[in-house]
Amino acid sequence: MSGDKKVLFSGMQATGSLTLGNYLGALKNWVTLSDEYECFYSVVDMHSITVRQDPAELRKRARNLLTLYIAAGLDPEKNCIYYQSHVSGHAELAWILNCFTYMGELNRMTQFKDKAAKHADNINAGLYTYPVLMAADILLYQADVVPVGKDQLQHLEITRDIAQRFNGIYGDVFTIPEPYIGKVGAKIMSLQNPEKKMSKSDENPNGSIYLMDDPDTVIRKCKRAVTDSEANIAYRDEQPGIRNLIDIYCACTGKTSDETVREFEGRGYGEFKMAVGEAVVSVLKPLQARFEELSKDKGYIDSVIRANGEKAGYCAMKTLRKVHKKIGFPERIR
Ligand code: ATP
Ligand code: LTN
User: Fold this and answer.
1) Angle at 82 between CA 79 and CA 85, to 5 degrees
2) How far is the CA of 53 from the centre of ligand 2 (A)?
3) Cβ atoms < 10 Å from Cβ of 47
4) Nearest to 211 by CA among 89, 64, 56
5) Rounded to an integer, what distance in angstroms lies between the CA atom of residue 158 and that of residue 102?
6) How many CA atoms lie within 13 A of 61 on its CB side?
7) pTM
8) How far apart are CA 115 and CA 208, in angstroms?
9) Are 282 and 252 in contact (CB under 8 A)?
10) Is the pLDDT score of 2 beyond 70?
11) CA of 67 to the centre of ligand 1 (A)
């Protein structure tokens, strides 16, 4: 936003415990991209309250998530790691963009339909306009690129539509963002149902590997992963369970699916599952150690929160001022 580098924005909700899917599909790519772009990584706590949260729990999870961003390798000196709720510009821009979004567009959002079905007793307006807040997050920082898992593509598409509509009326105000989908790990599936994505809100804890799971739990979950009766380790649609395990193995080891299939040719599922479990443990162990260490350093985390919150607020104001002017809000008298 300020230098020559292109801008990257992404965020994660502070709901539930992060899964291996969140790590391989999102966080890991964030780290890879962080040198190339000027990055904003937000803990999107305002998105979390679209479903009911326990306040103490939300606060704790938000802090853990912010700490985890750093533990995963994001340097808070180089990347703006902050809480969405600390920058009021998100809510302000979201309101404005609400007035440039059609109900017809929001009605098509599959995440809304899924979550409305799951929380039938609390289908609130925030849940419905969630994609507009997400658009505001991205457009506020004039992001060029937004790394997300495949499930978020529809929200990126609506963000682009809203930005183009706004620009069409007022001239070039917003950068039109592009999604960035990683090559491996873009959609990690549940270990118990390989047709369903691994999710932190899954009721069955055996379907997801959590980033804080201990090695025994990881190995046990991998061993119990649902596969098939083909007794053949191949990367194909007809064997979604095995394909998912290959994806996980590749994302953890950096190997390709062809290499993996060759490596395990003629070997049994039990042996392969064990190798997948070990590969996952080797990724999670250093991450957990770093997280523990950082969690103890309250002063350091607080300083990151303060400095980066201010930086994000400053960048957000720049865009907001431009937007206010374009839409005809009266100038502030200083
Ligand atoms: P929930 O199921 O509670 O809605 P979630 O696990 O889908 O949560 P989000 O906070 O919505 O998590 O997602 C954070 C990021 O992780 C997003 O970029 C999302 O695309 C990515 N992601 C989530 N689940 C997976 C998955 N199974 N595979 C790959 N990427 C994922
Ligand atoms: N909707 C996303 C989280 C999210 C996000 C964003 C991701 C909110 N704002 C901006 C990328 C950019 C989710 O549920 N995973």
Assistant:
1) 155
2) 18
3) 23
4) 64
5) 10
6) 19
7) 0.92
8) 19
9) yes
10) no
11) 18
- Check residue 268 and give left, alpha or beta (phi > 0: left; psi -120 to 50: alpha): beta
Distance (Å, rounded) from C-alpha 200 to C-alpha 89?
28
What pLDDT score does 294 carry?
97
What is the 8-class DSSP label of residue 80?
E
Please report, in angstroms and rounded to a whole number, the separation of the first and last CA atoms in the chain: 25
Atom 9 in ligand 2: residue holding the nearest Cα: 134
pLDDT digits (tens, 9 = 90+) for 153-212: 999 999 999 999 999 999 999 999 999 988 766 789 999 999 999 998 888 999 999 999
Residue 321 and residue 140: Cα distance in Å, rounded?
11
Q: Which of 187, 200, 322, 326 is catalytic?
A: 200
8 phi/psi in degrees, rounded to 5: -120, 135
Question: CA of 99: how far to CAs of 61, 93, 129, 160, 166, in Å?
Answer: 32, 10, 11, 15, 10
Mean pLDDT in residue range 115-131: 93
The CA distance from 101 to 96, in Å, is: 9
Nearest to 281 by CA among 224, 222, 210, 218: 218
Q: Strand pairing partners for 197?
A: 189
Average pLDDT, the chain: 95
Distances (CA, A) of 290 to 99, 213, 294: 44, 15, 6
The beta-strand segments (E) located in 269-325 are none
pLDDT by residue (tens digit) across 294-306? 999 999 999 999 9
Residue whose CA is at the smallest distance from ligand 2 atom 5:
11
> In the prediction, which pLDDT does 200 show?
86
Element (H, E) at 41: strand 38-43
Please state the atom number of ligand 2 nearest to the C-alpha of residue 111: 14
Of all atoms in ligand 2, which is nearest to the CA of residue 13? 3
Residue type, 280: V
Q: Which residue has the tokens 């990126």?
A: 156
* Alpha carbon separation from 204 to 81, 114, 186, 215, 239 (Å, rounded): 31, 17, 21, 19, 21
